[in-house]
Every structure is written in C-alpha cells, then in structure tokens.
Amino acid sequence: MTENESPADIQLVAQLEGHDDRAWHVAWNPKRPILASCSADKTVRMYHYHSTSSTEGEGESKPVFSHSTTIPTGHAKTVRSIAWSPSGKTLATASFDSNIGIWAQEDEDDAEDLTGGNGEWECMSLLEGHETECKTVAYSAGGNLLASCSRDKTVWVWEVHPDYDFECMGVLMEHSQDVKCVAWHPTEEVLASASYDDTIKLYLDDPSEDWYCFATLAGHQSTVWSLAFSPDGRFLASGSDDFTVRIWERVQEHQWECVEVLEGHERSIYSVSWGKGKATSEGSLGWLASTGGDGLILVRELSITTPGESGGKSTLSDKVIARLPSAHDVADVNSVVWCPRDGYEDVFATAGDDGLVKVWKVHTN
Amino acid sequence: MSGEAFNPNPIVFATTKSSRSLPPGVRLNSLWLDDGDHREEESDDSNEAEAIDQDEIFELIRSISDPEHRNMSLEQLAVVSAPQITFDQRNPDRLTVEFTPTVPHCGMSTFIGLSIRVRLLRSLPHRYKVDIRVKPGSHQSEHALNKQLNDKERVAAALENPALLEVLEQCLSTVGQIADAAAL
Fold first, then answer.
1. In angstroms, what CA-CA distances link B140 with A176, A302, B78, B143, B145?
2. How far is A121 from chain B (nearest CA, A)?
3. Residue A354 distance to chain B (closest CA, Å)
4. How many residue pairs from chains A and B have C-beta atoms closer than 8 A?
5. What CATH number does residue B163 fall under?
6. Contacting residues of B for A40, CB less than 8 Å apart
7. Could you tell me which of A8, A12, A33 has the C-alpha nearest to residue A287?
8. Which of A32, A78, A135, B24 ranks highest by number of CB atoms within 10 Å?
C-alpha cells in the first residue's frame, strides 16, 4: 500500500510553542477544553481551545488553541508526565526530582469555570516517596486512585482523599528495572505497568486490601515505554524500544495474551494511545496511534475478525489508516494522545524533542 | 564516585594526525609523495566524502578526557577510533559510535559512553540520531551498558545530576584540542 492510498490523512490543527526544552508529555482535560503539556524546562503549559465551524459549511469544526497559563511548578528537575483527574479539576505532575505535584485552582470560581484554565494553579499536595526519577503518573477511571512509577523499580498506588490528602495504599516492587509507564484499565481498578526490564505487569487490589501483581506479560525484546488500553478494556497495546507495538488480549479475567505484533517503526516507540476514533467498520476497536524516535505517527484501525472462543485468542486485523512522517521535523516525538472528549475523537496532540506541542486532526476521505 | 582505579596502568597509544591536516598528496603510512597519479586521487575523493564524515565525528570525540586518567584522551587510550564510527547505509543521518573500554570490567564505561553522547548531542545538527555501543566482546556487561547508553530518558536524567554533570564537563573541557600540535 503506497502512502497515497491511506484512507485518511493527518492535518496540523495547531503548533504550540513556548517550552524552552524538550516537551515530554501532553494531557487533555477530560471535562474542560484545556490541553496541558510538560517539559524538561520544568514547567507545565496550558492551552485553552474552542471549536469553530468551517465556513464551507462542511460541518467539520477545527479547534483553535491559545495559551492560557504556564505553571512554573517548582519541581527541581524535568516534569516528565502529567495527568488530569477524571473530574478535570486536578492535575498531577511527575518529575525527575522524584516527587509528584498535585495542582488545582485555588479559586472556586476558576475551578467551576468550564472554559479555560486561566486562574492560578496552586500546589495542593506534594507526594514524596520515590527514590529516583518519577516517570509516569495516572488517575484511575473512577478518580479515587492515583498510580505512579519510577526508576527506583517501584509502582505506588495512592488513594485520593478529600482536601488533597493522598494515602499510599501500596508500593509494588515487582519489576527488576525502571518502570517507565503506568496505565489504568478504562473501567476497572486494574493497573498495568511497563518496564525497562522488557515486561508488562498487571495488578489488582486483593479483597484483603493488598495490591498484588497477577500477571506478567513477556514478549517484547527490549524496554516497554508506553501502554494504552483499548476503549472497551478488552485489549492492551504496548510500545517498545524493540520498534514494535504489541496487542494483548484479555482472554480470561486475569489472563492476558499477545495476539498481535505490529511493525512499521524504525526506532524506539515512545508512546501509544488508543482512542474511540471515528470507526469506519463494524467490530472496530478504535484507533491506535504510535510514535517515537523515528518521528513517524502511525494511526491504525484495529478490528476483530474472529472472536476468540472461551479463553482463546481472537484474530485481529489492523489497517494503517494514516501515516505522518517527520511530525516534528527531525525531532523525536515523545508523546501522542487522543482527545477523550465527545466530538473530538479524530483529534490528537503530540509533544516533541523540539519543545513543540502539536495538535492534529485525522481527516477520513 | 569510588576511589577505586579500574585501570591504573593503561596502555597509551600514539595519536594519528588529522587526515585533513596533511599536505596534499601525502598519505598516511606512505613514504613517497604521489605526484601525477590522478586516478588514485579521484577514487580517494569518493572515499574521502565518507572518510571525512567519519573523521568529522572522530574529530569531535578524540580529545574527550578519560575520567580515570584526566590527562589522557579517549584517542590516546584507543577507546575511540575513526573506523569504529559507522553510518546507516539507508540513512546517512543515523550513525553508530563504537568504543572500546580499556579493560573488560571497566566501571567507567557508562561514563565514557555518556561523554561521547553528550559531546555529539551538543555539536552535531539535530537531525543526527546516534547509537553508542561498546565493541562486542570488550566488556563483561555489554548488553546492560549498551541498553542504558541508548535509553534517552536515563541519559536525560543523568544529565540533571549536578555531580555527574560536573565531572562530565571536566572531561569535555579538553575537546577541540588536537593532541599533536605538529599536525596543524
């Protein structure tokens, strides 16, 4: 299939400058029109966006972005990752200084304001405990749990209490090397972690109130950098330093198996993101985006062709629906994240080593 | 860093003259001037394009100081050499720099690899993607070493460590100096 035959193309919606150093990560506020980014420059930048209708009356709206605020954070080192709470009111920052910052808008009016993040963002809490760099922070779907991971090989699970009080529920020391990423299942309190030890681990909260690892997914030949659950929660995608994306299926409640190994990248894959997309076929599992050191963005539509029978693996088909080489020119792309809000299923943002944050839209032909 | 010396008595190698600083017609390892042999010169031109690129990279890293023996360069200790720099045939912007630790248990190897990476990061145009590896068979923890030298996140975090950065800057402060002044 030649490039021209892709069913869709990727168009630039906005190019957001401002970071003085590489941009590591982006996060879309799930409730409000705010896009946040974080960087090695130790700041978090927030952008407000609103939709405009196309003058041609195609009904296609193209969001317009403007910078609303910059949080200096006060972290002593790189801010590596950020995560919004499901309510959209709180932002967590994960830093190489080993701490996690919890931020909210002090002014009640600002917090209720459904438009931009224009007010002052204050540090409501500082979660200490990791011994070395914090790599990823993530809220569970219900918003009452926060997970973090670090080069210290551990995964921490925190319970969110009122007044920004966080209680550590577990320190999981299952990996033998740095933990690069943690991701929560979209509906259940199941946690996944990806590591420099080439494996993925899955964790549950035991009825006796202890978090434990119930599965280890091996198969990648090198560091696993990024994880993304499918929107329906039945599949997990992982991106690795071995240049592949693997798809794992939940064949039984506590059993996940690899059903697909996707090639197409020429260097380490730093980020994967799985969104609902604008499904073009029945049985579609949504749109999976991947990117990394080769600067290429790939958007794939995954579908089930043959469902697995009782505990067996399904057969999937994958189609590259759009590809964009050199998305950040010669710079590595560190992060790709689909917008989670209704009406924006074809929009995603990227962060690159050039310090830029870019917003893109997939146009299906 | 520990006070243990990994290699107290290193073998010191003679440095090569920079190939670009030689008078025209003079070749290394040759006693005679090549006069009037144009065919040979032409073929050398095509090789020279590649050789210059390899040499350019080598020029950048040859004078990095060894962390354990600060008055010696990586070139003098035969840790780096021009032939150990290779380019991806399909993409000239991707290169691999191989280095040879002086002893198989060298604990300074990570640091040396990091100094090479930082030097190239700061001096090459952004389009270059560099892989750093130890010469196969030259180190007891070859895989682990290669893995961390090529993990972008670990490298970035290491460079935010003030103590490490200070020593790194000291080892990089000698770059740009040509070991043999007579070569100029």
1. 20, 43, 18, 9, 9
2. 26
3. 9
4. 37
5. 3.30.300.130
6. 156
7. A8
8. A135
Distance of CA A232 to the CA centre of its chain: 16
Token pair 């399909």 in the structure block, residue: B90
**Closest listed residue to residue A244, CA positions, set A223, A222, A270, A263:** A263
Q: Is residue B9 part of a domain?
A: no
For B180, residues 6+ apart whose C-beta sits below 8 A from its C-beta are B15, B17
Integer Cα distance of A181 and A228 in angstroms: 10
Does residue B114 sit within a domain? Answer: yes
Domain of B151, in residue numbers:
54-183
Tokens representing A68?
Answer: 């609303």
pLDDT of residue A148: 98
Rounded to two decimals, the pTM is 0.88
- Give the number of other Cβ atoms within 10 Å of residue B52's Cβ: 13
pLDDT averaged over every residue in chain A = 92
The answer to whether position B163 is within a domain reads: yes
Tell me the per-residue pLDDT of B98-143, one tens digit each, with 9 for 90 and over: 999 988 888 899 999 999 999 999 999 888 999 999 999 999 899 9
**Are the beta carbons of B126 and A330 separated by less than 8 Å?**
yes
The pLDDT assigned to A280 comes to 66
| Shortest Cα–Cα distance, A167 to chain B (Å) | 27
Listed by start position, the domains of chain A span 18-275
With 0-12 / 13-18 / 19 or more C-beta atoms within 10 angstroms meaning exposed / middle / buried, residue A62 is middle
A133–B157 C-beta distance less than 8 A = yes
Total domains in the fold of chain B:
1
Q: Which CATH number is correct for A18-275, 2.130.10.10, 3.40.30.10, 3.30.1240.10, 3.30.9.10?
A: 2.130.10.10
> Best mutation site among B122, B130, B152 for testing chain A: the one with the most A CBs within 10 Å?
B152
CA distances from B31 to B15, B23, B34, B39 (A): 18, 13, 9, 19
Task: Flag whether B47 is in a domain.
Answer: no
- Chain A CB within 8 Å of residue B88 CB: no
Interface confidence: ipTM more than 0.95: no
Which residues of B fall within a CB distance of 8 Å from A178? 154
A93-111: per-residue pLDDT in tens? 999 999 999 999 977 555 5
Determine whether the interchain pair B157/A293 forms a contact, defined as Cβ–Cβ distance below 8 Å.
no
**Which residues from chain A sit within 8 angstroms of residue B156, using beta carbons?**
22, 40, 78, 96
